[in-house]
Design goal:
It contains seven helices and eight strands; from the N terminus they run E-H-E-E-E-E-E-E-H-E-H-H-H-H-H. By secondary structure, it is of the alpha+beta class. Strand 2 and strand 3 form a beta hairpin. The chain is globular, with a radius of gyration of 21 Å.
């Protein structure tokens, strides 16, 4: 069994997960859009996102975990503790605050991914009247350590629908980051850094129109 690598601050990762036993995790358009809404809620506070692709039974993300000093703190409200007149009566006289409960702590990358998967699983299970785990555990991740490989992986992720036979052209697929990256609309995706890797947006588009040898990045691709 392959050892799960830790998630470390400041590093780039190819993140992957699929439905348990290969089951579908996205059945309807609303499933895809809701997953992306949850992703935007939980992940940008701990990671920069460069590319993604959602497929019916799996997904890919290319991210960089932020440096620890760049991750925000979670605001925590002091816990209000009831004080009773008579411990057996259930009558309350006043409330006091636990001074230790208002301390701040940082968002933890692994926790944020857990929140994302748990929130989506609960909604999907409710919608489909199913129970139990939806995703394989733990989610897979590969550390990427060169700009050259990041570019290749971005092509691989955006080209995933073609590789799996869903489309003849990556441009035709709705649930990847390709169109968000080249559009003028505001997004949490790190467009500036992406286009710096390719020198500019025109080269980014041209690069995606070419065929690329995937063998060079097999170490970053999951079975």
């Amino acid at each position: 069994m392959q050892k799960t690598i830790p998630i470390e601050y400041g590093k780039y990762y190819h993140i992957y997960n699929r439905g348990i036993n290969g089951c579908n995790i996205f059945d309807k358009k609303d499933n895809y859009s809701y997953f992306l809404e949850l992703y935007e809620k939980y992940i940008p506070v701990i990671a920069n996102t460069f590319a993604y692709c959602l497929m019916p039974n799996h997904f890919h993300f290319l991210i960089q975990i932020k440096e620890e000093k760049g991750i925000e703190h979670i605001p925590r409200q002091p816990l209000t503790l009831p004080v009773v007149n008579n411990p057996g009566s259930g009558l309350y006289r006043k409330a006091v605050k636990n001074p230790g409960s208002g301390l701040m702590k940082k968002y933890k990358p692994s926790n944020q991914f857990s929140h994302l998967f748990n929130a989506y699983s609960q909604a999907y299970n409710k919608q489909n009247n199913r129970h139990g785990s939806l995703f394989e555990k733990p989610f897979k991740r590969k550390h990427v350590n060169s700009e050259y490989d990041l570019k290749k992986l971005m092509f691989y992720i955006h080209n995933n629908p073609v590789g799996h036979g869903f489309m003849n052209n990556h441009v035709d697929y709705e649930w990847s980051s390709y169109h968000s990256l080249i559009s003028d609309k505001q997004t949490y995706l790190e467009k500036k850094q992406v286009f710096e890797w390719f020198d500019n947006i025109d080269n980014f588009i041209f690069y995606h129109r070419q065929q690329h040898e995937i063998k060079e990045i097999e170490k970053y691709i999951f079975d």
